Amino acid sequence: MKFFFSKNVDSTYTKVISLLSLMSFGLLVLVGSLYYYMKVQEKEIYDSSNKVYKNEITSLLKLNTENYTSLVVDVTYWDEFVDFMTTKDVKWFNTSVANILDTYKVEYVCVYDTKGTFLTKVSTPKIKTVDFIPKEVITRLLTKKVNRFYLKIPEGVVEVYAATIHPSDDPYKNKTKPSGCFFMVRLLDNEYFANFEKISTSNIEFFKQPEEKSKAVYFIMPLKDYNDKIIQQLIYKRAYNIDFWITKFILIVITIAIILSWMVYYYYANRWSKLPLSFIKKILKTGDSNAIQSLKSIKGEFRYIGKLFEENQIKAKELEIAKNKAEESDKLKSAFLMNLSHEIRTPMNAILGFSDLLSHQNLSEEDRNEYIKVIQQSGNNLLEIIDDLVEMSKIDSQIIKPNLQAFDLDELVDQLFASYEKLYSNDKVVFKLTRPSQKIANNIVSDKVKLGEVITNLLNNAYKFTEEGFIILDYTLDEKNNSISFSVKDSGIGIPTDFQENIFKRFSKINAKGISANEGLGLGLAISKAYVEMLGGQISFNSQEGVGSTFYFSIPLEYSGDEFIETKELSNDNQLLDLGNNEIILIAEDDNINYLLIEKMVKSFNFKVIRAKDGVEAVEFCKKNKEIDLVLMDIKMPNLNGYEAFTEIRKFNPVIPIIAQTSYTFEDEINKIKELGFTDFISKPIEKERLFELIKLYLKRK
What we know:
Layout: H1 9-76, H2 79-87, H3 90-96, H4 100-104, E1 108-112, E2 118-123, H5 135-144, E3 146-153, E4 156-164, E5 181-187, H6 190-200, E6 203-206, E7 216-224, E8 230-239, H7 245-261, H8 266-286, H9 289-297, H10 301-358, H11 365-396, E9 405-407, H12 409-424, E10 429-434, E11 444-446, H13 448-464, E12 469-478, E13 483-490, H14 524-534, E14 538-544, E15 548-556, E16 584-588, H15 592-603, E17 608-612, H16 615-624, E18 628-634, H17 642-652, E19 658-662, H18 667-676, E20 680-683, H19 688-698
Parallel strand pairs: 10-12, 16-17, 16-18, 18-19, 19-20
Antiparallel strand pairs: 1-2, 1-5, 3-4, 4-5, 6-8, 7-8, 9-11, 12-13, 13-15, 14-15
Helix pairs in contact: 1-7, 7-8, 8-9, 9-10, 10-11, 11-14, 12-13, 13-14, 16-17
């Protein structure tokens, strides 16, 4: 203070003011630079976000297009379709091809012959125009084989997928001439936009005028016709929520600080403004965390600004993590689709190939039985893949819960091991079961099905990787700690060290040469881990490459306190029913192929069969024909589904046995069937022995 009262106070004050002025001007330049830098960054981030959004929409459109292109190719690669071009059997077309409308959400399908003559079409009420495919398109398609384009019709803009029709022995469509042309059409209406908006979290509409500046990223996609001429454009928009308001707020604070610096003391201004501004500059340029902490340690408004910077930095890290997760999810999705396509096509190739071989007339009985066995095994493999996918989906959706019940643990393990040993035992692999030293006194309480699934998965895994040696299943009870411990040990190839950390991840499979374990989707251990944790236990393993592996898991031990519960299983007696009273069975099934299969099974038991194609017919038949002895009711049918038909029948006939037949495997669907009061149920694919036992049971046959 003494310095300001010296006789040179005026000159000193002038120097201080000049210095402050120079500093203030410099700071103003800095603020302007920061603002310009912020605007540049804001534009770059917006441009980058717009580019990422464009790539995302393009990828989704490509995936969507590939799915429908694959569908139209698969449909036209069909021997029966080739026959249709000769027979022009519209009934076959309406039965076998028209279901594409409901299954794949398209509005119109039609067929032309190679001369461009319109043969037939099926459409939803959305499209009333009958024939709108230009002749020029058909001429080009006969040489191009597959095409996709857009057209304007009275109902609006439509997306057209087209392919030529060839027999199934011509997979690349280069051996035979086209038998005709098949077209599949989707209408670009509100429903189409709503479905894609849900997938892409975007707003979609037809482009009308140049997009004004708004808080949104967007992508304009041209819709081209068969001449590559743009007939319309779509605009995809998504809200752009990144804002630099925090930075702008900081710059405003800095500007105010600069103005106030003209009115404060030099030393005070130096400590209050210059130092914090240096921290802010460092934070803005490098994001230095130490600078943020230093800024927070300064009293006053800069502490709040430091907190704002800290929050902004946390949000930026969260955004980066979310971005990485999204990219990883996209990669996993692509890998999953490729893996799924491969795994499904492998058993399908065997099924289709050996089915074709069965049609040869000079086939020996031994070869025929071998081909049938291969087809059945491939069908089981395909069903296992589907079951694993459904089970994983139920686990992810958290709709699956433990079904706790009392059961005999020794009996469960004995049955599982005996079945497994019977199916897979050979001279090279020895199976061994080690039981507890003392017999279990009571039933235990747990989820019997899920526990059995875990044990089976671990045995399957051990068998896949063990060409010779041993497989040991061991379980012990620890009543002191209230736990049951299981282990499955094998002398197989072992797990490579670099693969062990991923062993319980989904779709993880060891690429071992010559090992059949590469079959399946790699979900068995992931499902087992989820089940064990669902039951309140833990799972682990140890493995040495070339020596073998041991998987351990434990679940809580809880006694039921009841006596042992005897379980009755349906026998495998395949002896046909010898019925002399002409019992009548009503089969309610809308699908022709499923009906044909069930009809053959039921007639092999010497029953008479009546068919209802939907729930309405099923109710009418039961009402008019009192001689019907049993009903096999499909759940998913048009007009009146299985649940509704069952309810109507029970109003006038409360005693007739009604067995539900369903493709649903979700636990809540099965519970719904039971709660509604169905006599029993059977899941598709239907096993002949299971169907036989149910008919015997409910027709009171011994």
